Structure to design on (42 residues):
């Protein structure tokens, strides 16, 4: 595979999208567990 600026930019873009979506999923998962604990204690 010929590695030039476009390939590096594409890999970086895909990596950033995966990191962003992973952060969103982690936030939703973490937030849902907080709500479960609050409802159990109330």
């Amino acid at each position: 595979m010929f590695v030039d600026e476009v390939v590096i930019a594409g890999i970086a873009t895909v990596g950033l999208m995966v990191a962003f979506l992973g952060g969103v999923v982690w936030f939703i998962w973490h937030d849902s567990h907080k709500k479960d604990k609050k409802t159990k204690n109330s």
Q: What stands out?
A: The chain has a mean pLDDT of 86. The radius of gyration is 18 Å. Residues 35 and 41 are 10 Å apart (CA to CA).
